[in-house]
């Protein structure tokens, strides 16, 4: 493997540096051609997101390739080499493979488990393919990285918990109500933040929206946006009884919801759980409301603390994801060492032929020479026909490197083959 | 789990044939049969709700019940119990007890998840347990099913007693205790329907009800009467 990677990310470089090194989407094709034509790279790829810039290149030898990429970045962005060198990292061989797998699986992200990076990596690879600057190395590495990312996503819970305020609101609502289908949302106050939260709840299945506000005209604007209805501010209590999720965000300086009101409401609801989200600062819901049975009050800090717990949970999952990475780096280097299936085909055929000839030799009494030759021909043909579907099976698994690896290993073991070059 | 349940079912059938009797008389067989009904309830609940934590509570009980049967000698079967009413009576009551146990566990799970949600610092239970709504649903369904079976079992018992039993079944300690149990669960259903008692209050009552079940099942024997093992 003669690929090298030079780059920087949110851990090695501050935003002031990252923004200077970033490539705009439209600049990437030209930059790739520059790497190929001016620097003589056989393969190249550029990943540029707000948190990372990474340049892949395959040159004549690894040492000079790293230098050349650094030179290219400095020249392309007109930044001094000394500033760049402080923030750049470089990888090659197995370290590069591990790094790419970790990036694709979102283990190297600012928020581990976020889904965007995989898409960005796919786009970067597609752009490089379109520009014709990819070859065997990138075409082997990237699909495997996408496959690893999929495995990590499926086999760990790294991406399953919510890590933003509005998605946490949805997650909590699900923990209370099961699914959100048919749940009724009440907005008290018509701020921007409450709109966002309402939007994500509605998108997740909540069906009905009511809006109430001291100034009804403002409530009407929001209600129109989400196909909801307006409730007069004085009738808030009745509206609370009928709602399941309440989002409070008024500009008021005092509490809008107090325990006495909520106590009445929850009794009338027959203790059907009520989820109250207070996203106003200063708070608009008296914190004592949370002590009422089956009323669950979350203010903005509470939501943030759930975000943090979820992040910790993701960090735990990241540990098992790292195990998958280690395993796959091993698989990948094994696959590299056998990329040419030719020797395997040859040694499998030889093995089968030997078996045929051995058996024939053991029991050839009574056959004329002509018969013997004919039987031999038939047996060898049979041997080749047996080998054929086995090899087809391996070729079929080409899109799934680890599966292919396992299949190859199985055949190797079963027939006791030695096809190392 | 399913395999164990299958074997257990098979064993109960064999045991039944061996003694030519439904295997639910005597302490030893009662415990084994109860373990079987709890397993049955667990499998039903699992198929419907997929709550992993349920097994955490139910399976130790099953294990304890089965283990305890090893140390208890099986007792001979009095002739009076050879009646089809007996089958109806015991089967219904045992199923009811197992279901009340599930109800009780569901109540505890509800409290755990409620506490997680109130604390705002989610920990293991928050991630592992299903939503409050789901747990509440499990609680209610098993409560009603258990109550129905118990009502049915009690009626079967009363008819049977009237038909062929000695006088004074009303004063039998087990009958009285079972009536109290039944009344507690009736109260729980009533409060749930009228005032929406759930969560902490409901769990407290189901705890009381379940304590009454345990007392009826095991404790009453010390007071003698027709039901004693």
Give me a quick take on this structure.
The complex is a heterodimer of chains A (421) and B (229). Chain A is α/β, with parallel strands linked by helices and 421 residues long.
Map the helices and strands.
The complex is a heterodimer of chains A (421) and B (229).
Chain A: E1 3-9, H1 15-21, H2 28-37, E2 43-48, E3 52-58, H3 62-77, H4 81-87, E4 89-92, H5 93-104, H6 116-130, H7 136-155, H8 165-177, E5 184-188, H9 192-203, E6 208-212, H10 216-225, E7 229-230, H11 236-242, E8 245-248, H12 259-268, E9 274-278, E10 295-299, H13 300-337, H14 342-362, H15 369-396, H16 401-415
Parallel strand pairs in A: 5-6, 5-8, 6-7, 8-9, 9-10
Antiparallel strand pairs in A: 1-3, 1-4, 2-3
Helix pairs in contact in A: 5-7, 5-13, 6-7, 7-13, 8-9, 11-12, 13-16, 14-15, 15-16
Chain B: H1 2-18, H2 26-49, H3 52-71, H4 84-119, H5 124-128, H6 132-164, H7 173-195, H8 200-217
Helix pairs in contact in B: 1-2, 2-3, 2-4, 3-4, 4-6, 4-8, 6-7, 7-8
Net shape of chain B: globular
Biggest interface: A-B, 23 and 23 residues
Query: Strands of the biggest beta sheet of chain A: in what spatial order?
Result: 7-6-5-8-9-10
- Rounded to an integer in angstroms, the radius of gyration calculated over CA atoms of chain B is 18 Å
CATH architecture of the largest domain in chain A: 2-Layer Sandwich
Distance between the termini of chain B: 30 Å
Protein described:
The complex is a heterodimer of chains A (421) and B (229). Chain A has 421 residues and is of the alpha/beta class. Chain A has three domains: 3-155, 2-Layer Sandwich (Beta Polymerase, domain 2), CATH 3.30.460; 165-307, Rossmann fold, CATH 3.40.50.720; 337-421, no CATH class. Helix content of chain A is 57%, strand content 12%. Chain A contains 16 helices and ten strands. In chain A, the strands form two sheets. In chain A, strands 7-6-5-8-9-10 form a six-stranded parallel sheet, sandwiched between helices. Chain A has a four-stranded antiparallel sheet with strand order 2-3-1-4, with helices on both faces. Chain A is elongated and about 110 Å long. Chain B is mostly helical and 229 residues long. In chain B, helix 3 (52-71) crosses helix 4, helix 4 runs antiparallel to helix 8 and helix 6 packs antiparallel against helix 7 (173-195). The two termini of chain B are 30 Å apart. The chains are: A alpha/beta (421), B mainly alpha (229). At the A-B interface, helix 8 and helix 13 of A face helix 4 and helix 6 of B.
